[in-house]
Design goal:
This protein has 13 helices and 16 strands. With 364 residues, it is of the alpha/beta class. The longest helix is centred in the first third of the chain and has 19 residues.
Length: 364
């Protein structure tokens, strides 16, 4: 599916992922949309984002600058409110649903708020697409590895978000509902790497929950690639899962410390955390196929999916971050090639070096 000439709504568009999705929509690499609308409930973030896009006058940003002047609009609103969603969705061809409560501890302490945003917000979106006069072609829901065999409120509510969107395919052939599911996005708001960087800049200690803790590591660009791959190729009810590296969090911390005299302390597992994350469960393996380098999970309900040719399952075991694929050398390559949190050319490791000074003997 091409986005040329399409009107696109990005819910939660002021978040880390939402802003990167908007940038991809505006830079012309995925096509030229007719309109890009950002929906969020934070007017301060919308103001900052508007200034960020409208004032990028460097030569390398000409396309984004010109497109943002012509294409980008903002709307204040809450995805929990059906009337707001009807108004936001009206005149839209594509919806990328990134709005969510995603902090694990926050959702544990405020579970009803997570239900309202993550589940009822998805339901409000579905209801909006079914309102009279709507002609939405595709909805892409952004999910998380924590939705797979969930043990915390955030994962439980995102798992139900997946089911709400997938079930929406029944009886609504005009709109295709699909999802993407992936793990920790490096440098996204609330992710662990910026926390480690801040602790290192302050001289430590760097806090890790458990020595055996592992996580998938995904760059923002790879996350956005997954969204656009699903938008282009996913069939009704499918969940796209990227193949991404996984690492021990102690190795991540030690790579960022990079030989400096900064200790690591272990704080114990937080409420609702897993030791290892899972992106494809054992139960999903038999309906998971390989397409263009992604794992694609077919919907559980046969009424929600298109017909399939016979295929071999892409996996016979769950897809877990316990399958460690990155050693410290691999982590250094990943982190040293990824821009720092200031958005400039400085990398994570260079930024830490600048903040903490010359290397010293490590005491971990």
């Amino acid at each position: 599916m091409s986005i040329d000439g399409k009107r696109v709504l990005v819910t939660g568009g002021t978040g880390s992922l939402g802003q990167r999705i908007v940038r991809r929509l505006l830079n012309g690499l995925a096509g030229t949309p007719a309109k890009v609308r950002v929906l969020s409930r934070d007017e301060a973030k919308q103001h900052d984002m508007r200034l960020h896009f409208l004032n990028r006058r460097a030569a390398t940003d000409d396309v984004i600058y010109e497109n943002s002047r012509a294409l980008l609009t903002f709307r204040i609103g809450d995805v929990r409110d059906t009337e707001t969603m009807i108004d936001a969705v009206r005149g839209t061809d594509i919806v990328i649903h990134a709005a969510a409560l995603k902090q694990v501890p926050t959702c544990e302490y405020f579970p009803i708020e997570a239900v309202r945003t993550n589940i009822l917000g998805a339901d409000a979106l579905v209801r909006a697409t079914r309102a009279p006069g709507m002609h939405v072609e595709t909805v892409v829901g952004i999910s998380t590895d924590k939705a797979c065999k969930p043990v915390n409120v955030m994962g439980m509510t995102k798992a139900l978000m997946e089911r709400v969107l997938i079930e929406a395919n029944i009886g609504q052939s005009d709109t295709r509902f699909v999802c993407v599911r992936y793990g920790n996005v490096i440098a996204s708001r609330g992710s662990v790497v910026p926390v480690f960087l801040d602790q290192i800049a302050r001289g430590g200690p760097v806090t890790v929950t458990l020595p055996e803790m592992t996580r998938f590591l995904l760059t923002l660009d790879r996350a956005v690639d997954t969204v656009f791959a699903a938008l282009a190729s996913a069939r009704r009810g499918e969940i796209y899962v990227p193949r991404v590296p996984a690492a021990r969090m102690t190795d991540v911390a030690e790579t960022l410390i990079d030989g400096r005299n900064i200790p690591i302390t272990f704080t114990g597992i937080r409420p609702g955390e897993k030791i290892h994350e899972i992106m494809v469960s054992e139960e999903e393996c038999h309906r998971t196929l390989d397409r263009d380098g992604y794992y694609v999970i077919a919907p559980m309900l046969p009424e929600c999916r298109d017909s399939y040719e016979a295929w071999r399952p892409a996996r016979t075991t769950e897809y877990s971050s316990a399958e460690i694929t990155l050693d410290k050398a691999g982590l250094r390559e990943l982190l040293d090639s990824y821009p720092g949190t200031n958005g400039g050319s400085e990398t994570f490791l260079n930024g830490v070096a600048e903040a903490t000074g010359p290397r010293a003997t490590r005491a971990v």
